[in-house]
Amino acid sequence: MQFIDLKTQQARIRPELERRIGAVLDHGQYVLGPEVNELEARLASYVGVEHCIGAASGTDTLLIALMALGIGPGDEVITVPYTWISTAEMIALIGAVPVFVDIDEKTWNMDPAKVAEAITPATKAIMPVGIYGQTADMTAINEIARRHGNLPVIEDAAQSFGATHQGTRSCALSTIGSTSFFPSKPLGAYGEGGALFTNDGPLADTMRQIRVHGQAEKHQHPILGVNGRLDTLQAAVLLAKMDVFDEEVASRQEVAAIYNARLGGGELTLPPVAEGNTSVYAQYTILSERRDELRRLLAKADIPSVSYYAVPLHRQPVFSDLGHAEGDFPVTERVAAQGLSLPMNPYLSEAEIERVCSALNG
Questions:
Q1: What's the DSSP call for residue 102?
Q2: CA angle 209-210-212, nearest 5°?
Q3: Residues 318, 324, 328, 333: what is their CA dihedral angle, to the nearest 10 degrees?
Q4: Beta strand 194-198 pairing with 176-180
Q5: By CB distance 3.0 to 4.6 Å, which of 21, 181, 267, 300 could disulfide with 193?
Q6: 234 Cβ partners below 8 Å, 6+ apart?
Q7: Residue 100 φ/ψ, nearest 5 degrees
Q8: CB-facing half-sphere around the CA of 192: CA atoms within 13 A
Q9: Sign of the C-alpha dihedral, residues 241, 245, 248, 253?
């Protein structure tokens, strides 16, 4: 059984993939070629924003966003400890301080009630994460940001691209939206890739400039930048995948509904979706005090499973200088200790889902 089934998807879209890749081989513009412009326009329209900037990875997009906002040494950025390390890593890399707040008990995303408590005069941005496929409570977070001097909000939507919050798509919910096209994502390339989204024209221009070493025009580099350009071949792959993306999101939601029906009513905590949200189910994650036992049962049945973020960021050695101890973020620590992600992809059959559920029941 495939945890993430890229082979079946590829077989479905292979003719369009080959056509798109062949066009790139023919014109030979392998970096920021015409497919990148086409993809940016298509993604901006899909999300519902004015500007999309393709980039080399979802990690680079976070870095570019922080740089464009002028965040640096001495500044603080509020985020969560229950996420992949890139979120806090990029904050620290530019010299700022990641300020962790706990996640919400119900959604496992940033708890807005904790955000207001963490704001200080040094706070320069808030970076919520759309964990496992749905957004944080962006309405509440944006309101807190507004009350505190219109702090910029960077939505780390590496897992939530395609989801909605109160009818608005992820990446259109804040100052800047950032997503990843890592191959395992619901919309994934065949290598690294990412994108930034905003309705702020000058900010978009700055992010585009940072993406190409801070270059404003040939031989002119008025600001520091990075090599954050998107490969044209990756854009070609993503354009082919966009043709089936909405169908695949609907299929993911159907798979999740079957899981919910088969696994509900027992001791497992199933993945919650907040009222007003939809999820793209980048992962289907359950909580159980018997997590390790369940993982062994699945492995015995040759079923893959993953415990994501089992060591949360506040317990990572690289962030030891922040002075956090076990118990500082109890909800994060519980979810990290109990979380188990089951196979999830748009091509998972009902028989395969039944096999997973039967294995979990011993």
A1: P
A2: 70
A3: 20
A4: antiparallel
A5: 181
A6: 181, 189, 190, 191, 192, 193
A7: -85, 140
A8: 10
A9: positive
Q: What is the pTM of this model?
A: 0.96
Give the tens place of pLDDT for each residue, 102-146.
999 999 999 999 999 999 999 999 999 999 999 999 999 999 999
Report residue 208: phi and psi, to 5°: -60, -40
Q: What is the dihedral of CA 138, 141, 147, 150, to 10 degrees?
A: -70
Buried/exposed code over 253-278 (b: 16+ C-beta within 10 A; e: otherwise): bebbebbeebbeeeebbbbbbbeebb
pLDDT at 1: 86
DSSP string spanning 245-297?
A: HHHHHHHHHHHHHHHHHHHTTSSPBPPP--TTB----SSEEEE-TTHHHHHHH
How far is residue 197's CA from residue 155's CA, in Å, rounded to a whole number? 10
pLDDT, tens only, 277-287: 999 999 999 99
- CA 207 to CA 119: how far, in whole Å? 26
309 has pLDDT over 90: yes
Position 265 pLDDT exceeds 90: no
pLDDT for residue 208 is more than 80:
yes
Q: How far is CA 321 from CA 68, 118, 143, 260, 288, in A?
A: 26, 18, 31, 41, 31
Burial class (CB in 10 A: 0-12, 13-18, 19+), 28: exposed
Give the pair of three-digit tokens for residue 75: 């500044």
* Whole-angstrom distance, CA of residue 22 vs CA of residue 118: 51
Q: What is the DSSP letter of 172?
A: S
- CA distances for 252 relative to 6, 162, 188, angstroms: 14, 11, 14
CB proximity list for 119: less than 8 A, separation 6 or greater: 78, 144, 148, 151
Chain-centre distance for alpha carbon 220: 33
Domains of the chain, CATH where assigned: 6-101+108-239 (3.40.640.10), 244-360 (3.90.1150.10)
Chain mean pLDDT for the chain: 97
What string of DSSP letters covers 21-81? HHHHHHH---BS-HHHHHHHHHHHHHHT-SEEEEES-HHHHHHHHHHHTT--TT-EEEE-S
Q: Is 218 helix (H, G, I), strand (E, B) or coil?
A: coil
